[in-house]
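Budget justification, computational time. The allocation requested in the original proposal was used primarily to generate structure tokens for proteins on the priority list. As evidence of use, we reproduce two of the resulting records. The first is shown immediately below.
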Amino acid sequence: MFCDISVPPLITKPQRQTWKIGTGDSTTIECLAEASPGSQYVWKNAAGGVVSNDKHLRLNNVNDSKNGYYTCTATNSLDSDNDTILVEVTSKFHLHSHLRVEIPSKSNSLIE
């Protein structure tokens, strides 16, 4: 005897809610759900635009335009579940400078 149990999707991955990615870097974020029958996946950006039709959100050569919230939705014939993450694009390089300004005058003052 075979017993087939149906289970609605329950997202188990990603487990991290905030993803910090350096400017110019690439990453893949996986969405996984426990479900029977198996789930279909879709990733959407904050504006509701579809950015991936599978369980992988691929972000390549990221820049500031990729900042924001992304939602993965897992759906099967019983129901759906979703999980939202935040992608923060960070600068790889921090420029620290010390400004030295010379102002010519009769007293030859130097301002730092």
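The second record produced under the same allocation is shown here.
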Amino acid sequence: MPVNGSYLSCEALYMRTLRSLIVLIVANIATFVLDSAWAGPPFVTDDPEPVEHQHWEVNYALTKSWREGEASAGIPSIDINYGIVPNVQLVSAQ
């Protein structure tokens, strides 16, 4: 394998491979150790139970209010959920 116009010796190639392997092992260990250290507070949601796998859930709402001599209505809101995989849902809310 040419490096700067010359070939690496077997010893140099071995050392280079060993260094790469050590870096990879340290990175993997750090990922598993630090993964729990970066945990945040519990996720807060208004939908406590995900949609079943390969099922849809569509929620819609209108708001309106009447007072003496007045009336108002809010635009419709819609929330569409799909169970993409078990215990995971895709959400589109407007």
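A brief technical remark on that second record: The mean pLDDT is 80.
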